[in-house]
């Protein structure tokens, strides 16, 4: 196995803990900052749930599901939940667990190796992912997906000066050009520059709120 930069070599086998045909409501053996992370399952259900900060992540019982600690970088002492689906379809779901909840890092339609997941813990990757979300506008949604995504980001991204997260997101966002519209048809009637401006203004306001919250809490 290739060496990882951010992820621990040790892992917690959540599938083994949950089992197949049993009722489970059990804390995962994480550190003192994550004592309330719980695996919940019903014996007759296809899925189980990993619950953190009263928010739930659904995982298939047939999947290979593990948790690894982040040992370096901006997300040091957070955890990553990795679900490899094993039902004939190659798919990997990756979630970053932080003290206030979780954020989805990937829902890939292929089998990701551990080194692939490791690269997602670089602040530059998170900045790109955030910019990509901001640069996608769903014409059928009143509340855009990028708002939900940003609300799930950990506070540390906005407080760690070394990460330079906000500036990095803005630079990547504008380098992406026109927004990606959903659905992508008859878009000549849409003022994409207004969609772009709305996303940028949201992120600027949201970032200021996060940094303001930091000063109040600090």
Mean pLDDT: 90
Radius of gyration (Å): 19 Å
Structural class: alpha+beta
Shape: globular
Number of helices: 7
Question: Which stretches of 5+ consecutive residues score pLDDT under 50?
Answer: none
Could you give the order of strands across the largest sheet? 1-6-7-8-9
The termini sit apart by: 41 Å
The total count of strands amounts to 11
Q: What is the helix/strand order?
A: EHEEEEEEEEHHEHHHEH
Biggest sheet statistics: 5 strands, antiparallel
Report strand %.
25-35%
Helix amount: 25-40%
Please provide a written account of the structure.
The protein has 218 residues and is of the alpha+beta class. The longest helix has 26 residues.
């Amino acid at each position: 196995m290739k060496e990882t930069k951010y992820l621990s070599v040790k892992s917690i086998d959540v599938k083994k803990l949950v089992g197949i045909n049993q009722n489970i409501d059990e804390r995962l053996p994480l550190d003192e900052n994550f004592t309330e992370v719980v695996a919940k399952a019903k014996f007759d259900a296809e899925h189980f749930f990993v619950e953190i900060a009263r928010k739930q992540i659904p995982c298939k019982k047939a999947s290979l599901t593990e948790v690894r600690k982040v040992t370096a970088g901006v997300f040091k002492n957070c955890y990553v939940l990795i679900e490899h689906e094993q039902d004939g379809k190659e798919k990997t779901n990756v979630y970053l667990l932080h003290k206030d909840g979780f954020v989805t890092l990937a829902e890939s339609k292929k089998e990701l190796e551990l080194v692939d997941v490791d690269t997602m813990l670089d602040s530059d990757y998170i900045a790109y992912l955030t910019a990509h979300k901001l640069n996608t506008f769903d014409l059928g949604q009143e509340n855009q997906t990028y708002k939900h995504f940003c609300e799930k980001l950990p506070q540390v991204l906005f407080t760690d000066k070394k990460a330079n997260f906000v500036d990095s997101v803005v630079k990547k966002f504008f380098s992406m050009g026109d927004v990606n519209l959903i659905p992508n048809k008859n878009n000549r009637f849409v003022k994409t520059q207004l969609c772009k401006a709305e996303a940028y203004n949201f992120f600027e306001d949201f970032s200021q709120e996060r940094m303001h919250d930091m000063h109040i809490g600090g």
